[in-house]
Amino acid sequence: xxxxxxxxxxxxxxxxxxxxxxxxxxxxxxxxxxxxxxxxxxxxxxxxxxxxxxxxxxxxxxxxxxxxxxxxxxxxxxxxxxxxxxxxxxxxxxxxxxxxxxxxxxxxxxxxxxxxxxxxxxxxxxxxxxxxxxxxxxxxxxxxxxxxxxxxxxxxxxxxxxxxxxxxxxxxxxxxxxxxxxxxxxxxxxxxxxxxxxxxxxxxxxxxxxxxx
Length: 213
Description:
The protein is α/β, with parallel strands linked by helices. The chain is built from seven helices and eight strands; from the N terminus they run E-H-E-H-E-H-H-E-E-H-E-E-H-H-E. A six-stranded mixed β-sheet has the order 5-4-3-2-1-8. Helix 1 packs across helix 2. The longest helix is centred in the middle third of the chain and has 17 residues, at about 65-80. The protein is globular, with a radius of gyration of 16 Å.
């Protein structure tokens, strides 16, 4: 759902964009949330030995580039210490890659880019949502910064989407890049209740979740 294999997923709080139709508007406000040491989070993300990759989402990951770069370093060092392959890393951003390289908007961006395998860039545009791949909309681009996930290039850019919807009591959680229409179907008529139900997992570095494609 958020990349190939079993993955640990990190959602960060705060985003400078306000894309119409954003699937996670509760992650947009720049407000205090759970703070966790990157080394500790790396251990949590790799606690399941089946995890082969990490995905950074949010929110806007570049706002916390320094912390995520440290997390990536800790995760790969941790994997090597455990005798496991280094995890591949996918990251979403509303910024264009050219802008990030030319004029980084936050500290640590260059370091983070140097640790990513795939960057999916560009703001979400609802009218361009074609329901394909991990791109939220057709204007977004999947950049392979290394060759580690070239084997999954077609699926990442144009493969069918899937999302998991989980309901536990009054809490509803959606994980993945949803196909068009899914959000409206689960958020209507109680969108405010859904957002409130999801808010408790808002965090600076969200807890690990392993997900498969």
